[in-house]
Amino acid sequence: MVSPKRWFLTAYENRDMREMQRAAIIGGVGGAAGLLLLVILTFLITVFKHPLYHVSVMGIFIVEFFLLGALLLTKAGKSSLAAHLLLIPMSSYLWLLMFTTAGKLDLTSVTDTIAFVFPLLAMATLITGKRTVLVYAALHIACLIGFTVFSRQTDLLTEKEASEYLMDNLIAIIILTIILFTYIRNTEKAYHSIERSLNESQRNRESIERILVQTNDTAALLASSAEQMAAAAESFADNTQTQAAFIEEISSTVEELAASGENLFGVAQRQASATESVQLQMHSLHEVVTDVSEKTNSALSIRSDLNLSVEKSREEINAVQKVMMSAASKFDDMRDTVGVIDEISEKINLLSLNASIEAARAGDSGRGFAVVAHEIGKLADDTSNNLKSINILFENSHDEINLVSKKLQAFSEVLGKMIGQISAFGSSVDLIVQLTKKESALNEAAGESLKLVEQEASRILDFSAEQKEALNSIAKGISSMNEAMQQIVAGSEEMGATSKNLTSTAQNLMGLSSIFSR
């Protein structure tokens, strides 16, 4: 419910505070004076039996009329005009009453009526300005001089009494005017100071509101960025988990490949042993040349077994080469995947840098978020470094696989040569019966061939050992890469949780901004 005072001052809500106070004084004084005059009017009519046309009754009616007009003007927002409409009739009625009652009433009562001039000047001080107070003071002084001259001419006062009356009241009015003028000047200075302070406060309030609006917008942007970061972190975690599963499959494949390498190493050892056995048999060939038929059958059997072993070795080597090529292709795919993850890490780092810049713009309210954004950037850098290490490991593994593949290819070529040599050896065995005369030459040629075979077998054994070590190294590298991917998965989950906390912090900041901006 609106109070009467607030309803009366509705027109001054957006005006100067001093003007509102003047309007409030006019309303208070005008209302009080109107009620007081109504009480006096009631006494004059009922107690003193004055008729309505009596000068005092008519004067009160006139003053009441002007008071009502002043109140209406004040309500309409014209307080300056209302002030004059309030002061002029009251001042005029005062001096008119003194002039009309002089000689009719007691002289002391008439001359003492001038005492009402001082509250009128005080009221003029409250509801008007400095110049207006000086004007009203001058008018009252003029009326005082006129009343003194009138009293002297009508012999109401002697010359001495008139002079004393004039001087006493003139000095009192002048002193009061000086005091009131000084009061108004000091009051205006105080009002100007208060107004400047209020304007400064208003500017500060507008500045704070702008800051709060910017803070709210920044917090909204921060919340949106944090949500995007959380979504990116979740997607990154899913992709990393997929890559971890893929690495598990690669690890299993490499383990199978290592087992095949073990088998290949065993075949090479058996091949070396078989070569040594053939060499021993060739040494004893000269001693058993007389029993060529029986030994020929045995040699043919050995040739068949050796052909089968060599053919099996070549097939296993071809299978290993295919596995190596497949592993190289998968390593290329893994390297591409690591490149994609590295790009995501760089985007996360850039997003963290943008969040840190926005937090710095937010000032003290964004310090906590700046620390979180820094940690996210640091985690992204660590992720990028780990990915680079993984990529280097992939490159080394890829090179080693290519090297092993080349060596296996060379070994396959050696096996081809060995197969040709064994075929030649078999042909020689077939011709032993017919070429007994050439036994010595063939024995020497076979000895040289066996030396070459022994050398090739030794090389195959060395290649198999190197392949075994390379496959073991690949298995260890894959295991390390698997552990690194697990750490990346854990870091991605932690980054997602941090992004969610960042979103919550941004929403809290938006809530605080909305509270302060109300």
**How would you state the average pLDDT, rounded?**
77
The CATH homologous superfamily of the domain at 221-510 is termed Methyl-accepting chemotaxis protein
Report the major sheet. Answer: none
Helix and strand string, N-terminal first? HHHHHHHHHHH
- How many β-strand runs? 0
Low-confidence stretches: none
Ordered list of secondary-structure elements with their pairings:
Elements: H1 4-8, H2 17-46, H3 55-75, H4 79-101, H5 107-112, H6 117-127, H7 130-153, H8 159-285, H9 292-361, H10 367-430, H11 439-516
Helix pairs in contact: 2-3, 2-4, 3-4, 4-6, 4-7, 6-7, 6-8, 7-8, 8-9, 8-11, 9-10, 10-11
Family: Belongs to the methyl-accepting chemotaxis (MCP) protein family.
GO cellular component, one term: plasma membrane
Protein name: Methyl-accepting transducer domain-containing protein
What does this structure look like?
- There is one protein chain.
- This protein has 518 residues and is mainly α.
- It is 89% helix and 0% strand.
- The chain has 11 helices and no strands.
- The protein has helices at 4-8, 17-46, 55-75, 79-101, 107-112, 117-127, 130-153, 159-285, 292-361, 367-430, 439-516.
- The model has no long low-confidence stretch (mean pLDDT 77).
Concise overview:
With 518 residues, the protein is mainly α.
Which structural traits does this protein have?
single chain, 518 residues, mainly alpha, Helix Hairpins
